[in-house]
Amino acid sequence: xxxxxxCCGALxxxxxxxxxxxxxxxxxxxxxxxxxxxxxxxxxSAPEKLDRIGAYLSERLSRDVARHRYGYVCIAMxxxxxxxMACHCQTxxxxxxxxxxxxxxxxxxxxxxxxxxxxxxxxxxxxxEEDTPSYHRSYDFFVSRFSEMCxxxxxxxxxxxxxxxxxxxxxxxxxxxxxxRCFRELLGRAAYGNIKNAVKPVLMHxxxxxxxxxxxxxxxxxxxxxxxxxSQHSHLVIQQLLGHLDANSKNSARVRAGIVEVISEAAVxxxxxxxxxxxxxxxxxxxxxxxxxxxxxxxxxxxxxxxMGSKVIKVHEERQLQEAVIKTVGSFAYTLPPxxxxxxxxxxxxxxxxPGMYPALGSANTGVEGSRMIQVMLLKSLxxxxxxxxxxxxxxxxxxxxLDPLLSFTLMEDAEIRLLVLDILIGxxxxxxxxxxxxxxxxxxxxSVLKLKVDKCSRQDNLFMKKHSQRLYRHIYLACKEESSxxxxxxxxxxxxxxxxxxxxxxxxxxxxxxLALALQDLALTEEALPVYTxxxxxxxxxxxxxxxxxxxxxxxxxxxxxxxxxxxxxxxxFLLPEDVLVESSKIPEKLEKVEGEVLFVQTKxxxxxxxxxxxxxxxxxxxxxxxxxxxxxxxxxxxGDTVSLQLEMESRNSPEKxxxxxxxxxxxxxxKQAVVxxxxxxxxxxxxxxxVVERFQTAPFEEIAAHCGARASLLQSKLNQIFEITxxxxxxxxxxxxxGHGPSRSIPVYEMKFPDLCVY
Length: 761
Description:
The chain is an all-alpha fold. It has helices spanning 2-10, 14-21, 33-45, 50-66, 70-86, 92-108, 112-126, 140-150, 157-160, 175-188, 195-208, 216-228, 234-247, 253-269, 279-299, 315-334, 338-349, 367-386, 394-397, 400-408, 415-429, 459-480, 487-503, 507-526, 532-553, 556-572, 578-581, 603-611, 617-621, 630-635, 640-653, 656-661, 669-699, 702-727. The protein is 63% helix and 0% strand. Belongs to the EFR3 family.
């Protein structure tokens, strides 16, 4: 019997005998190194046998696993690892299949030590660089199994947290560090087409485990993502996050705020200008979320068609979300070059409901308050975009299409909106970071201590002021008359005026600014109906501004006059200076007595002084009077309904019927007396008529309003038809004939007329 066995053993293939010889009788002795060297040499000499060697080792390993002979299992895996590292021939792919089969067998075992053994072997295999990729292999099982092992719930914590065996103690990593390193390596190898596949599981994980609300973990994950992927692919991650934000539009405010926070952090990491070709889509998505948040806050529901209270909406959480969106808008804008930031500014201003120019942006359920909140939120977003914005060309930074709607907000009754607009203008005009040098507002005897950065005005600056200066002055003048203005408003008005003087002033502009400052003084003197604080603040604004201008013009006699008036005010009426008015606890009288004499700036004297220095005396001596336009009256309205009523009022005043009824009346003493007596009644009737118009547009059915507008459209069309009929009627014929006598001649368009040859050039 024994002889037969020995004879059969000698007849076994050589590769099997070499494989058997590497296993010792006692597995604790470990791999027989001498025999392993023989096996390796044989595999290198006969690479065609490598696949058979692998298959046989796999067979032995499976048998040992089934018999719980784990010592031999370890020896088999060690042999496989050495063969894998030594052999790089063309037939290695066949051997790899056997190797992966054995690794899979170990990973499927219920013993954690075998799973760790298989994992270590797979790590060694993954670090081998192959000459050509092998597309026929499938690693789906390994990805799934390794992911499952990451969430192991094994009782022993040491085994549960064990990593692949490090070669040295310094290379030992915690599971968190190892996971982060693997995650970074995976993202670093992701190509353009694989970015979405890499980011989508991260989004799903954060959704499934409610990790958006805490923000910290989500922000850390996407910081890893943004720093690991190739920079040219970063905009793809941003787009996925924005799409995910849209998909969660009806989720809780805390979840949406978490996503927005992640977007904000990712935008900071993103390289400048690499948001991609869809810049406006990014801002459109963020502004859409801002609008939805306002609707949710005011309606109390995520669905306007659902029952109120279907989900509890917390106002403070929606406010936090709105602030997060505004911050994110600023983060994105910071990464953009100036020309793209200008486009974003135009885009946002086009989204804001402007009285008399654009309809309300709020939904039907939110009404006027919704429009007002949208105005505030979008202006805050615009303020974030303009922060740090420095354009060399003020004409491109403040084009007419942007400046017109923006200035219309300076005359609204909402104090917060007016303040936001002033800050936006300050941010755009301040190109040398001078704005902070004018705060706090105070009289400075020597402005050189401010260290202002003043450059000569460029041609573009002069063109801008020539085109828009009068509108700027008018809006500043009218903004000073607002009764709801407080300290912060007058401080911003002074900063804006100072920046215009420093950044954009030539000789002509300086003259107009002096006239404006003197006009503000006259305003405070004549408008006795204004609150005492407002009148004192206007006086202080005029004084501190003339103090700045006189030192910038460097005309000694002008400076002397201004300083004399200021000194007189310090002694007699200190409440007309900024140190007593534009402070937190102002020191103003209960009633403002008549201001006159040496505490006032004299326009004729200033004109005479500056005329001797070459300034335009005639213009200086002319008082500045702002021209009130229809736009200003439109902007003064509180709501969209008021704006519509005013537009209808203007139309009714300009209608043809109104013109036909106008007749010449003989004016007598009795007529004037009756006009004076009835003036109060007429004003009351006018106010009542306007109230009825507003009420009709706020409460009347849509069909009634549509019919009214349709009638006006029909009237306009009929007038246009009459005009067209006149323009296409032919002139008298050159021959003098007026027709063929059979009826009226047909109207022939000019381009169809037949002219004699002598009349054609």
